[in-house]
Amino acid sequence: MQGVGAAVLAPSTLALLLTNFAEGPARTRAVGYYGAVAGIGASIGLVLGGILTDWLSWRVGFFINLPIGMALMLGAKRYLTETERRAGQFDLSGALGSTCGMGALVYGIVRSATAGWSDPRTVATVASGVILLALFVLIEWRAKQPIMPLRLFASRERNGAYAARVLFLGAMVGFWFFTTQLLQGVIGYSPFEAGVAFLPTTLANFAMAMAVPRLTQRLGNGRLLAAGLTLALIGMALLSRVSVHAPYAIGVALPMVLIGIGQGSSLSPLTIAGIAGVAAEDAGAASGLVNAAHQLGGSLGLGVLTVIFAAASSGTLNARELLAHRIATSLTGSTVMLALALALVIALIV
User: Among 22, 35, 164, 346, which one has the highest count of C-beta atoms within 10 angstroms of its own C-beta?
Assistant: First the structure.
């Protein structure tokens, strides 16, 4: 139910920005704050989640959205103007093809971590996912009102932004997931201490995200994006060298600062590039594609990194050392994803 709600809400929010702000400095500033909220929300969630888990219960985290959601519903009713309604056809076959195809692909990748690539069900689900996604493209090519108009891929800049976003989110979800395991399972922090330990990322992310609109005007969207990815790449490479003996300040906190700066200066430019030059009638579809790249990047990325985690093993290490080794190997995978994202940005956007 949350997934259905998010699938409606996230692209609708971005589409409202596209329709209310003309392309240029005003839209750049609006989308910049949009991206800042996304990055900051994810970072603050880690801190608050750790605090609430330690002080109350992990279940409390699921109630945080309720008062925020109520306030946003009232605010939307009061401040947002209704857009013009248009008749149309729902692309049911396209929706089913894309959802089932990507679902099967992610499931197959995750299953391979335990069952292996020789498992018949793993092979069947991955193959089914690829076939369904190929059929989805064919459906969209022939549909009168496609859920994902293929003309959105006519721009090199947008293509680079979609692909880089998938890789960037895959790397960042891996960072959040495996660094939490590092802080609690290897270093031995409590949930509260682990939440507070993410503050270097959260504070750096917040400071950088607030400066993005000004930096975009000064440096340009492409250069700022490349610089942000470079800093995130350096931070992730440093963090991937962590071990059971690494001190928090140098081995974890310093890379976190670089990753936070990189995240804060990358999400907004990726969003701006993903909707660049989009016609008004394609605002909703383009916003949906940006959100799909965001969500699928996290799902696919974590699935791939989980396979890497399971494959990293050594018979000479104790349990704590083995966990640290597997986490470091997984974060190396995140580093590779960021390197590929940076290469795409330089080739297709900068």
Answer: 164
Binned average pLDDT, 10 residues per bin, the chain of 350 residues: 79 79 77 74 75 83 85 89 78 88 87 82 92 92 86 90 94 92 89 85 85 84 93 95 87 93 89 82 80 85 88 80 91 96 94
Structure-token match 């699938």, residue found:
7
Distance, in Å, from the CA atom of 34 to the CA atom of 269, rounded to the nearest integer, reads 11
Which residues, 6 or more positions from 350, have their beta carbon under 8 angstroms from its beta carbon? 222, 223, 225, 226
Q: From the CB of residue 260, how many other CB atoms can be counted at a distance below 10 Å?
A: 28
pTM recorded for the entire structure: 0.83
Contact (CB, 8 A) for 297 and 166: yes
Can you state the angle between helices 267-274 and 156-181, rounded to 10 degrees?
Answer: 150
| Residues with Cβ within 8 Å of residue 246, at least 6 apart in sequence | 252
- Determine phi and psi for 64, rounding to 5 degrees: -60, -35
The 3-state secondary structure of 102-166, one letter per residue: HHHHHHHHHHHHHHCCCCHHHHHHHHHHHHHHHHHHHHHHHCCCCCCCHHHHHCHHHHHHHHHHH
280-297: burial string, b at 16+ Cβ within 10 Å, e else = eebbbbbbbbbbbbbbbb
C-beta separation of 121 from 111 below 8 A: yes
